[in-house]
């Protein structure tokens, strides 16, 4: 009997000043830490896969030759909207968000226009809780560039995704990057959300059922 794949779950936390950045750190560090990997599936700790990993790789990558797959955001598609929402909810220091946003605009970031036939992405705001990737040179480069932006400005990776992608395409015109940005409803079908429970809540629930 041939074992076609051996899934491995990595739960080790990589130290960083802001927990939501760990995901992108892992994206960028994987080629150096685990050189044997050819493909990986990354998901938020609150999500649980509902399908066989091989089926996920086949659907999101292999079927159409993609090397990186991430869903669009369920509600917002323009970085302008994402900036406003982050500031409204006080997700990070407003001054630093403004500096990041001003830098991106000065370097060519434009408002998302869904009707533009030449747009490079179906949405400029991703939902980064579930990512499927092949460990190709362009996929690794994109991940490293994305992490650079997270480390340089804010850990709100949805703010820097579109800028990083457009910059990668602009700086590498002769090297295609096969990115699959799929609909959020597909993500919710494949990975279900399970909210964390604190230890105290677990004890209360346990006592209530005894």
TrEMBL record:
InterPro entries: TOD1_MUCI70, TOD1_MUCI70_glycTrfase_dom. It holds the Pfam family TOD1_MUCI70. It comes from the Eukaryota. Residues 37-196 form the TOD1/MUCI70 glycosyltransferase-like domain. This is TOD1/MUCI70 glycosyltransferase-like domain-containing protein.
């Amino acid at each position: 009997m041939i074992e076609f794949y051996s899934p491995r779950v990595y739960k080790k936390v990589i130290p960083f000043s802001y927990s939501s950045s760990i995901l992108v750190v892992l994206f960028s560090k994987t080629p150096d830490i685990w050189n044997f990997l050819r493909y990986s599936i990354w998901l938020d700790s609150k999500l649980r896969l509902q399908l066989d990993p091989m089926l996920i790789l086949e659907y999101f990558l292999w079927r159409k030759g993609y090397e990186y797959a991430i869903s669009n955001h369920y509600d917002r598609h323009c970085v302008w909207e994402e900036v406003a929402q982050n500031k409204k909810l006080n997700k990070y220091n407003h001054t630093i968000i403004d500096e990041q946003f001003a830098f991106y605009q000065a370097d060519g970031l434009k408002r998302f226009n869904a009707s533009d036939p030449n747009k490079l992405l179906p949405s400029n705001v991703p939902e980064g809780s579930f990512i499927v990737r092949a460990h190709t040179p362009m996929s690794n480069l994109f991940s490293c560039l994305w992490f650079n932006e997270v480390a340089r400005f804010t850990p709100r990776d949805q703010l820097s995704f579109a800028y990083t992608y457009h910059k990668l395409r602009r700086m590498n015109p002769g090297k295609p990057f096969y990115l699959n940005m799929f609909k959020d409803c597909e993500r919710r079908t494949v990975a279900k959300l399970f909210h964390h429970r604190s230890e105290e809540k677990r004890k209360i629930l346990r006592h209530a059922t005894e």
